[in-house]
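Here is the promised in-class demo. Please do not try to memorize the tokens; focus on the logic of going from shape to residues.
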């Protein structure tokens, strides 16, 4: 089975919901907020000038196998979720009542992100996720590697990633791509490694 990588910016709008569904396999906070937030996030991400990413597609069936996303300022992507105030209030209230712990984590994480320094000439590997049936064949690693290659082409000098300490598959793929752990920290319910690599 062969696959090809394509820029996320070129994905047909009708296929974006599939990216959102695959993303729900990520254990991070965005998934916990639920599908409407995830879809809105990726709708914003593909329109964001500075964010970039890739999706992997099975050459035979056309099925989307996974994707990756990077940005020099991930907090700007998160902030865009609140741009449409009416939409945001309606949906965040649903989270408050149905998933109060996720809402608590939003507050903790937004404080943490605000405290994070974004150095010039650096990018964050914001997400990389592979459809469970295609995992364990090096696809995660190549989707993240594509972010690194594109980041280097755009003149960025360093890439960062945060990975939960239990997430062995992500840690293995990330470290195989040359990242090293620079610190381990707690962010609310999450216990994460911070990793970096030169580009
Ligand atoms: C992380 C993720 C993208 C990796 O995708 P993938 O295509 O399976 O990744 P790769 O095959 O390139 O590499 C995974 C490595 O972890 C290993 N691995 C996978 N699952 C594992 C497990 N449960 N325990 C130990 N090792 C595991 C694989 O064998 C491979 O190591 P190897 O290269 O030494 O053989 C995928 O697991 C995923 O989508 N997870 C959910 C979303 C997520 O957590 N994203 C990362 C957020 S930081």
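The designed amino acids, position by position:
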């Amino acid at each position: 089975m062969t696959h090809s990588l394509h820029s996320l910016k070129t994905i047909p709008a009708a296929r974006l919901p599939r990216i959102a569904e695959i993303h729900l396999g990520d254990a991070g906070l965005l998934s916990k907020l639920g599908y409407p937030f995830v879809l809105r996030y990726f709708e914003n991400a593909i329109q964001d000038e500075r964010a970039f990413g890739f999706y992997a597609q099975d050459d035979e069936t056309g099925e989307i196998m996974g994707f990756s996303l990077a940005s020099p300022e991930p907090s700007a992507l998160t902030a865009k979720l609140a741009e449409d105030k009416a939409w945001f209030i309606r949906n965040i209230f649903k989270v408050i009542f149905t998933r109060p712990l996720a809402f608590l984590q939003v507050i903790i994480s937004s404080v943490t992100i605000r405290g994070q320094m974004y150095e010039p000439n650096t990018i964050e590997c914001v997400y990389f996720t592979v459809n469970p049936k295609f995992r364990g064949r090096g696809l995660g690693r190549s989707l993240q590697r594509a972010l690194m290659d594109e980041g280097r082409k755009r003149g960025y000098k360093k890439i960062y990633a945060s990975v939960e300490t239990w997430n062995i598959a992500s840690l293995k793929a990330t470290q195989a791509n040359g990242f090293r752990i620079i610190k381990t920290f707690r962010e609310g319910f999450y216990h994460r490694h911070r990793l970096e690599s030169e580009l």
